[in-house]
Amino acid sequence: MVLLTKGASGREGIYNAGKWFSYFIIIGLIAGCGSILFHYLCQLGVHYFMDFMAGYRPTPPAGEHHLLVPTTRPFNRWILLFLPALGGLFSGWLVYTFAPEAEGHGTDAAIDAYHNKGGFIRSRVPIIKTIASTITLTTGGSGGREGPIAQIGAGFASFLATKLKLSDRERRIMMAAGIGAGVGSIFRAPLAGALFASEVLYRDPEFESDVIIPAGISSVVAYCLYCLVFGWGSLFESPDFLFRNPLELGPYLVLSVVLVLTGWFYVKVFYGTEKLFKGMTGVPNHLKPAIGGLCTGIIGFFFAHTLAFGYGFIQTALTTGLPLTMLLTLAIGKIFTTSFSIGSGGSGGVFGPSVVIGGAMGGVVGELFHRIMPGVVTEPGAFVIVGMAGFFTAVSNTPISTIIFVSEMTNSYHLLLPSLLVCSVCFLLGQKFTIFENQVKNKVDSPAHAGEFMVEILQKIRVKDLMHVVKQVPHVHEEMGFMAFKRFFSETKQHYFPVMNKEDRLVGIFSSTDIRGVIFLKEVEHLIVMRDIATTDIITTTPSEDLNMVLQKFTQKNIDSLPVVQETDHGVLIGMLDRRAVIASYNLQVERMKTRG
User: Fold this and answer.
1) Where in this chain does the record put each CBS domain (predicted)?
2) How much is the pLDDT for 256?
C-alpha cells in the first residue's frame, strides 16, 4: 500500500506504517461504534413506532433479534398509512435545516466527496444522517442501512484526516476506509465491505487499489466490535444450497435478464421520482419527504411487507419459501416505496432494498422454474441468494464485491459459480444505468486522479512519437547583424530563433521577447550581432525524452518552444517542439483512452 511504504525505509518505514495502521484502527473503532449505535436506534425506532403505534412487527433476519419484547398491540393499517409521512416530515425538517447534503442515499454522496471534494465531508453530516435515516426507516420508510453507516464511517475519517492536516489524497483513502468499515460491520461482511469501498467508485470493473488494504483493516476492526455486541454469525441463515446440475445454468441466465430489466425499472423509477419531487418548486423542501412518506404509506396500507427493511421476508423466502404473489409484490412494491421514501429527499441507503428486490425476483424465477422443471431446479431458495447478488450488480456495477457480500451475508459459498455467471451477465447488460449517479466511468474520468494520470500518460509518450509536429525553422547565424535580422524578423511569424555557428552547430537561442530591449536603440543596433542577444544556456530535448520531462523544461523558464537535438550530439539541431503540440498530444491520448474505455 502506497501510504505505508512511499518514501520510507528502515525505522522511518516502520514508524510510518505504524502511524497509518493506528489511523485505520481508529476509523474501524469509530465506524464499529457508529454501526452499533445506528443498529440500536433502528431497533428502538421499529419497536416504538411500527410496533407500539401501528402493531406492525416484521420478522427480523436470522442474524438479528428484537432488543425489546414485542408488544401485543393489534395491527392497524390506518396508522401505518400515515406513519411514514410523519417520519418524512420530521426527517425532512432535520435534513434541510441542518445538512441538506444528507438527503437521499448516503453512499452516492460519499462517492461524490471522493471524486470531487477531496474526500471532505462536513462533520455534522454523519450526525444528521444517522438521526434522519433512523426516523425515515423506522417509521415505515423503505431504505437500507448502508448509506447512513457509510456516511458515519466516511464522515469521521474525513474529519480525522482534516484535523491531522493530511493531503486530499490521504483524506480520500481514509474516507473510503470509513465506508468499508461501516458497511462491512453492519452487514457482517468485512471482506465485502473493503472490496465494495474500492469498487463502488467506478462504473467500469475497476478497483481503487490504494483503498483495499486500509478499508480491510478498518472493516475487520469494525466487524469484530459490532459482533462482540450483537453476536457472531451472518445476517441471514441459509440452507446448504448446492450447484450440481449444469442444466440449471439455463434458468440462471433467464434470471440474469429478469434482474437486469427489473434493475433498469428500479433506476428509472427512483430517479424519475427524484426528478418529480425536485420539480415541485412550489413545495418547501422539508415537506417533500412527508409527501413521499404518504405515498409510501398508501402502498404499505395494501402491502405492508414493502415497508421498512424487509430482510425478514427474504429470510423466510430462503428457508420456508413465500407465495409467488407475495414475492412479486415485495419486489415491485419495494421499488416504489424506496423511490418515494428516498427519492423525495428522505434519508436511507439503496443497497438494503436492492438485496430485498433482487432476492424476491430471484425467488419468483426460481419458483416458476421449479414448477416447470422440478428435476433441474430443485431448490428455488438458491435463486433468492443469486438474485440478491445479480440485482445489486445490475444497478451498481460492483460484480466482485457483491458476490462476496451475498456469500458473507448468507454464509453460503456453494453458489459462487452461478452467482459469478449471473453477476457477470448482469454487469455486462446493465452498464448503461446505475443507482449511484456519482460513479465515474474509470480513473481517467475521476478528478481525484487527474494529476496522476497526466504524469502517467505523459511519461508514456516520447518526443520521437511527435516528430511529425517538430518544426523545421530558419536558423540565425551568430555573426548576423541586428539590422539584417530586423528585415528577416519583419517577414516571419517565428517566435524562437536558434543561433548557429559557421559549422552549422547550435550555439544559442533567443525569443522575440529578448530583442525588445535592443530594437529601439537606434544608435547601437548597427554594432550588435545576434551572438550578443542569444543565450548560450540552452534548454534542449532529445527524441528519447518523455513528455513529462519536456513539460517540466517548458515550465522551468516559462518557455513555449524547445530545440530538439540529436541524442549523441546536442549541437545538431533537428527542429523545434512547441508546448501546444505537447498538450494537444496529451489531450489526444486521453480521448483515445476514453474511447477504448
Assistant:
1) 469-528, 534-592
2) 97
